[in-house]
Amino acid sequence: MTTTIVRPLSEFYSDPARHSFKRVARVCIGEGFDYVVEMYENKELVESRVISGHSIDYAEDCAENWVTGVI
């Protein structure tokens, strides 16, 4: 399913203290008020995951799981 990104809401980094951007996740609001988590590795988009029917906290947990290597 493809959702058009309306605007970014937050970003997560694999190691912000060391300015390591190996893994980055961006939480965006999509059309229809779904959240979209864009997951990047080495500046390349790996996956855009649509989070439908959940809160922003759920979407941000997904983003955090990506940058910490859980996903």
Helices and strands in order:
Blueprint lengths: L4 E11 L4 E11 L4 E7 L2 E8 L4 H13 L3
Antiparallel strand pairs: 1-2, 2-3, 3-4
How many structural domains in the coordinates? 1
- What structural category arises from helix and sheet content? alpha+beta
Shape: globular
Q: Mean of the pLDDT scores?
A: 87
Features of the shown structure:
single chain; 71 residues; alpha+beta
Give an account of the 3D structure:
The protein has one helix at residues 56-68, and strands at 5-15, 20-30, 35-41, 44-51. The protein is α+β, with helices and mostly antiparallel strands and 71 residues long. Strands 1-2-3-4 form a 4-stranded antiparallel sheet, covered by helices on one side. Strand 2 (20-30) and strand 3 form a beta hairpin. The protein is globular and about 35 Å long.
Give a quick rundown of the structure.
The protein has 71 residues and is of the alpha+beta class. It has one helix spanning 56-68; strands at 5-15, 20-30, 35-41, 44-51. The longest helix has 13 residues, at 56-68.
